[in-house]
Amino acid sequence: MPTSELEKYFPVLVMAVIAAVMAASLTILSSVLGKRSKSPQKDTPYECGMAPTGDARDRFSIKFYLVAMIFILLDIEAVFLYPWAVVYRQLKWFAFFEMLLFIALVLVGYFYIWKKGALDWAIPERPRKAGPKTGTNLYREAA
Amino acid sequence: MDFMILSLIKLGLVLFIFMTALAYIQWIERKVIAHVQLRVGPKRVGPHGLLQPLADVIKLITKEGMVPSHVHPVFYYLAPFVAVFFALIPISFIPFGQANVKIPFTDITTNMELTDLNIGLLLILGLSGMGVYGIALAGWASNNKYSLIGGLRSSAQMISYELPMALALVSPLLMLNTVSLRELVNGQEGFYFNVIPRWTIFLMPAPQIFSFIIFMIAGFAETNRVPFDLPEAENELVAGFHVEYASMKFAAFFMAEYANMVTVCSVATLLFLGGWHPIVVPGIGNWIPALVHIGGGAICLYHGLVQPARKWDNITLPVFGVAFIGAGLLFAIPIVQELLAPVFWFTAKLLILLFVFIWVRATLPRFRYDQLMRFAWLFMFPLALVNLLITGLLVAATTN
After folding, report:
1. Domain containing A110: what range?
2. How far apart are CA A94 and CA B32, in angstroms?
3. Is the ipTM of this complex over 0.85?
């Protein structure tokens, strides 16, 4: 049996060292053992056989930043729930109503984000403009 | 015996079994999907293709370890390292059997786990959260448009599903009031009316079926498995974040994926399916491990000796059959039964969940990206919260 609380982490430490050695050997081994050959074609970024245009480090959608920010806000809420859950049976109704208030406050923000459209990824369909008269319409008008 | 020496021995044993299992989960996956699609799957290397994982590793190691000149070299190497590193650590504190087991013929008592941490669940959540860095870094460092899109999608997806996952895990904690993995399983011991096990998915006053389903769905998304495999959507992104990776660096991502699958299934087993507690009452339940093994052996013998379907089946299948029956007879010995039956139950539940992962991959098509995000934020998150509140209400109402 482990003698101290710190000693319990010894297997985790050993496992971390083994995992580091294993991960490093996986990434490096084939560079050492494999054969080497270079050619300008092989060195270009893969774009399905087309000649690549421009740099890949381009601008991308703001949505990804937005999701990351919302995640941090709501995940902190989830983290606060863990200690609450562990002492729940001791505090009972007090804990329940305290957390109800907390979750309600977070939910206000959640619905605000939702209504602002931060969670919509598909571009909303625009109402179709009335185009030039099509064949069917012409027939209908004639009738 | 000294705790440190004992843990080193156990670590060696667990690591050996874990690495072998990782290699063979891939073999099982290829075989199962092949049979779902009416193919045979790997069968050339060794009997029934059993040496295929070994052949794959040798092939991948001796491939050219190419580093294209347009990548960021440091992060390009760091990405697979990070992915594998954080995927392997959780097995060092996942319990898989009872505490204080006496090993026969010695006076050593030990726990069926490497170490017992009182914050086990939090540590697992933290480590699985780090897994996203491997994929995001790989996508960015590759300097390829497909990789970048794949990496971005994956990061957004993994953090979106982490939220319902974290919330779904709170509900069983509410009922069992601890974050130690061993204590969580100990709280699920026993049976209702000698029939229904007191696992969290059946536990009164608030059976956690919904949070189990939410956790499993989020688990699929966290490990980037079908139907959530958008980062590597072949028909639009070629291979997503690992387009520019080759050789063993490429395989490292898959190793991390399978290790994460094992971790997710272990957590689901420990938190929702009663860990190593048997599914039926001990009287009859003690004989189930033996019966399952002997039954499997009998099926192998029948197909090997009476009805060999393929050329070498009359040699290979009887060997497996005898091995299975031997293991079954071993489980009939009381000392072994006491020692290994909990491990058997844990492994059985784990393998069934892993089979579900493979089954789903063979069955379901892929989500569209906006559907995936809407599903996480507008369905899973509110559902997990409502489930949590109902659980809280029921637990508070029934606690004296």
Report:
1. 63-122
2. 51
3. no
